[in-house]
Structure to design on (75 residues):
């Protein structure tokens, strides 16, 4: 069994939107990480993932603070 991650996915979308949201979160002192399966697959030498399907993660302890920032930034 895999250990539970300390991160939670809070948004999935295009790289441009993800970068915008990361800036908004960073301005509020919330660090985030991304996961891009398409880019990872290409770097490893095989195809994989869905274009413009980048995932944004924040620490679970920051989720409640991050979600309203994301919602407000996208409206």
């Amino acid at each position: 069994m895999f250990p539970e991650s300390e991160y939670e996915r809070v948004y999935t979308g295009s790289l441009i939107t993800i970068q915008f949201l990361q800036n908004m979160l960073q301005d509020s002192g919330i660090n985030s990480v991304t996961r891009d399966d398409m880019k990872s697959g290409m770097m490893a030498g095989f195809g994989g993932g869905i274009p413009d399907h980048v995932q944004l993660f924040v620490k679970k302890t920051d989720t409640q603070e991050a979600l309203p920032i994301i919602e407000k930034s996208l409206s």
Observations:
- The beta strands are 7-13, 32-35, 54-59.
